[in-house]
Amino acid sequence: xxxxxxxxxxxxxxxxxxxxxxxxxxxxxxxxxxxxxxxxxxxxxxxxxxxxxxxxxxxxxxxxxxxxxxxxxxxxxxxxxxxxxxxxxxxxxxxxxxxxxxxxxxxxxxxxxxxxxxxxxxxxxxxxxxxxxxxxxxxxxxxxxxxxxxxxxxxxxxxxxxxxxxxxxxxxxxxxxxxx
Length: 180
What we know:
- By secondary structure, this protein is mainly alpha-helical.
- The chain has 2 domains: 7-90, Leucine-rich Repeat Variant (Alpha Horseshoe), CATH 1.25.10; 108-180, no CATH class.
- 47% of the residues lie in helices and 9% in strands.
- It has helices at residues 10-16, 26-38, 44-56, 62-71, 77-89, 96-105, 110-122, 156-161; strands at residues 132-136, 141-145, 168-170, 175-177.
């Protein structure tokens, strides 16, 4: 049997298990502040889990957004990606230029695909399973496609949305179509 991946912090384990309130009282606000502090912890498992949980809460305050933005530059790629997903869930369009860079320059994980789909949804494009999104000419406009490299086929609509031309970028995991 393999060990479960859990944070080193007992506090974070309690947060993950829903045993620690994060809203509704002064005590809960102190817990939220402590959770935010763990996003900067020296232990990667604590940063990862704190950023994951913070990104998946419905709490949207300037402090939460700042903590997520700070983690975009974390040394651990998974922490960075969890922060991006949290910002995408909060409709934070300031993260779109970095998302574009990531989709063009690095392998695309499931977390980044989820963030891309969230950005596509918030900007009025249909987020589909396996959606990949790329910021195009304007930092607030997205082109989306369902052109995952391992996808068995593409519909005529997808072919029109993501034509194979000089604007197509091939990523090891996903093909992202960039319009001009």
